[in-house]
Amino acid sequence: MDLYLVGYLMCMWLSSSRVLGGYPIWWSLALGQQYSSIGSQPILCGSIPGLVPKQLRFCRNYIEIMPSVAEGVKLGIQECQHQFRGRRWNCTTIKDNLAIFGPVLDKATRESAFVHAIASAGVAFAVTRSCAEGTSTMCGCDSHHKGPPGEGWKWGGCSEDAEFGVLVSREFADARENRPDARSAMNRHNNEAGRMTILENMHLRCKCHGLSGSCEVKTCWWAQPDFRLLGDYLKDKYDSASEMVVEKHRESRGWVETLRAKYAFFKHPTERDLVYYEGSPNFCEPNPETGSFGTRDRVCNVSSHGIEGCDLLCCGRGHNTRTEKRKEKCHCIFHWCCYVSCQECVRVYDVHTCK
Amino acid sequence: MAGAIIENMSTKKLVIVGVILLLFQAFSFMVGGLIAPSPTTAVHYLATKCVDTVKTHHKGSKWFMPWGPDQCSKIRDFDEATAKRIEANNIVFAVHIPLPNREMSAWFQFMLVILQLDIAFKMQNPIDDGALVTLDVGLAYRDSTLSEWTEMAHSIEHRKLSCNFTATKTSENEGRYYDCDLLPFMEVGSVAHKYYLLNIRLPVNERKKVNIGIGEIKDIRLVGIHQNGGFTKVWFAMKTFLTPSILIIMIWYWKRITQMTRPPVLLEKVIFALGISMTFINIPVEWFSVGFDWTWMLLFGDIRQGIFYAMLLSFWIIFCGEHLMDQTERNRFSVYWKQVGPIVFGSFCLFIFDMCERGVQLKNPFYSIWASDVGTELAMAFIIVAGICACLYFLFLCFMVFQVFRNVSGKRSSLPAMTKARRLHYEGLIFRFKFLMLVTLACAAMTVIFFIISQVNEGHWHWGGYTVQVNSAFFTGIYGMWNLYVFALMFLYAPSHKRYGGEQSSADQGGNSGEDIQLTTTITHVDGPTELYKMTGKEAQE
Fold first, then answer.
1. CATH number for the B5-39+230-541 domain, one of 1.20.58, 1.20.1070, 1.10.1740, 2.60.120?
2. Which of A60, A118, A154, B231 has its Cα between 20 and 30 A from that of A79?
3. Average pLDDT, stretch A110-139?
4. Is the minimum CB–CB distance between A305 and chain B shorter than 8 Å?
5. B37 at the A interface (CB within 8 A)?
6. Coiled coil: which residue ranges (chain A) (predicted)?
7. Against a cut of 0.80, is the pTM above it?
8. Is the Cβ–Cβ distance between B485 and B309 less than 8 Å?
């Protein structure tokens, strides 16, 4: 195991030295506690690893939005881990490393597509949320209106529901994806697909407040969905992601790589679909090159025939079973918000782990 | 009712009047659609979770600011609170209205706030059936960012949770949110201050079963709705323009009636009353709300609208009744009690309901009649009774219209046999009725169509480079339309003076003006002094 670890670290070092590699290094914001929105010390833009000049500029100009950006990536990664909890690759992040997923996402695989989409959706989601909380003063639409500030709000109000968050995500997350290579095109596409998910899943809520509360006057607004729903939706998109092939064109600025659907007889991917152009490793055995951790010692579900079932998760290697006595809290009475009174029970579990 | 202007008007003039009214109508739609912004705005607020520590007690101020220089100490989520052993009673949800760098304005007219709870599903901690959330809410205001907060209202409120969980209730789905109904939270009838602050607590008391079984509340979200300042300005401008127009035509109309030798008949009085109720709506008393903190304006507006609707409905009934042509003498209000009764009763029910809701909100802005079971039943009862009254009314109205049409067709067949004067009298009646019927139907259809469009539509249309605010166009257009309706009614159904002069020469009547004079005068003898007939009839009885 130790040998593998050394191998990992080597690999990670290699990948982190390629700042413009497959996936953004600044995602490590998500793991640093100091960057959370409640965090006491302000974010230093210069200390965020892997920012391209445009992002650095954005960070300095909109410093108060940055905690929500960090929060958003974190949200995305948590959701990724939830959605992939029972799978061979379970969205593991590595502490103490700038490339937080290891080399897994360096390849243009489905997994990369999903993580990009969920992270960019997370950023848009968290920024919209923090705007509603009033933590940043940049949000809103006064800048679009003419006249002195505040007049636009007084005349016609601001009913930007999620547009601002999407805008921030587009400006910040896509800033590094401007190279003419295929990976950049793929990241751009998947980032946008993640953001579209939010706009797509907004739900309309209305309130009637006319004469005696009748619907003579009705006000409607778009509400952001639960982030779990976005995760579900993107997981579906992961399962139905389109495989592409890279095409090279010669344009005035040099060689440009674009993506084309590999199979002409399948439906072409829309802007809401995820795309990839490299096959995923099988994640069964540990492999420092691909970043696979292997599924050894992973807990599996013996009764399930799905991917979380012992047959598939353990890649046919079989599983060990042991009995575990656990002390658990039971018969709990929950008091909102933060007080639980429980009894302690001892339960016996059969734990299955992959060989 | 004597020969009205509409009968004696030439077709050409009638068309001209119609075109002018239509132009005004189009104008009123355009004012709303092109100049005004959308009528209302909804702003999302996410409550900040503040911690009420012992330290903050010493500071003196008991208000918690979510952001800004003197912001409270916050927690991000309740796991943090559990770790720090913070009790529920010390958690304060703070919302500042509006968001940073903005301020509220008196032009916003009203502010209503809707509450939405984000409750995560947890196997161990589900929402009980009929769970009741108890909220300890405080509202404060200030007019400068530096001054202290002044308390405006404080109350303990109960709201019934109605949430459903669409996914299966397994541990797989823990952490998903319930789909909860929106809860009414607050309604303020005037926005006199620049900044508002809401502090909400969810106190827990196990012994009294307060806030037990409400699930795992993760966040409190509020949606603040207010009228847009631009819309208010356009609306006021419209009212200010319409008030004198209706007032002038009303005075002119009443003068015409008083100039006549006979006392005014019922229908004339009802039209006048309709004019008064229209003026009552029009008078832009709302201008005062810009300067004064009059929270009752919302309620007052409801009352004014209610009076107008009741008046309009009564007018339709009486108009039909007076054109029944079945030889019975009506002309008294008491004849119509059966039809007008439901209107009055229905409006009264709605009035009581409104007083229970918006009336009480004057005292306690957090009050909602829908929050308690008894209140909900009471409110439903009022609304159902009002609905029944409305159905009853429409049955009466339809029946009466049917009767009129039956009598009209009956009269049609006997028209040639009548004397010329009588025939003209009846033809006049039929024309007057049919004209109003047509106009009313057109107006009602317009109202319904635009109402449906505004309900279905997303609120604005992009049309070339312009954005058309459909909802605003609906409000200004329909408001303008009913004003024009009342205006046209008072103008066209005012008694004609043509019998006094000999200058009338309708295109279709040719140059035989001698007969015209004779005819119109006979009409006034036949129709105008119906009172005379009545009197002679009474004398004969005596």
1. 1.20.1070
2. A60
3. 90
4. no
5. yes
6. none
7. yes
8. no
